[in-house]
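forwarding from the other thread:

> can someone predict this with heme C?

sure thing
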Amino acid sequence: MRRFFVIPLTLASTLLIASPSVEEQATLKGNQISNALLQKLGGELKSQMQTGGPMVALHFCSQNALTLTEQIAKESKTSIKRISINNRNPVNKANKVETALLNEWDNLVKNGQPLPAQKLVNVSDSTIMFYKPIVINNEACLKCHGNIEGELAKAVKATYPDDKAIGYKMGDLRGMIAIAIDQD
Ligand code: HEC
């Protein structure tokens, strides 16, 4: 009796694994790329904080965060942005569509509801947007995005006069990673 069920089920799951849907592929790729980016930026940040302290790390971020992001985009043949409504770097400012999504996620966080792991949007037949929330999940983030003061606050203001990326607490939504994945 058992064999009759086992064989078709095995076949069906093999087929599914062999041909993942476009959405499944984009989810996988988006997660791989965003993990690589978070690891790269997080790793660099950690070692700069450990060896030089927040001022050195701040300088490092201003100088290299975008370049490192570009590098991973190039390697993965995608385009990648880090986006926030309360952006520090003007380049990372959310547009209208991105602001709507971030507000939706922010409301979830404020109501104590879980955030989705990611969101996919078909922008055309050939491009899928992959969005992943970035949450303040490490006390170290607060060194530069919490209630900062003194020399560090001055240095941030000097480089980013319109900085809005302060006053965060643990668990807050900081922004998101947006990756444009082209189908080939
Ligand atoms: C040493 C200071 C420092 C620390 C620590 C730090 N950041 Fe930042 N962060 C910056 C600077 C400077 C920028 C602006 C430059 C850039 O990355 O484009 C920035 C930008 C960002 C951005 C892009 C959006 C924007 O506001 O421009 C995100 C998202 C972000 N940080 C998240 C985090 C998270 C999450 C952590 C903790 C893992 C963290 N940061 C820790 C200094 C810091």
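Residues 42, 45, 54, 57-58, 61-62, 65-66, 82, 84, 87-89, 92, 134, 136, 138, 140-141, 143-145, 165, 174-175 surround heme C (CB under 6 Å). thats all i got for now
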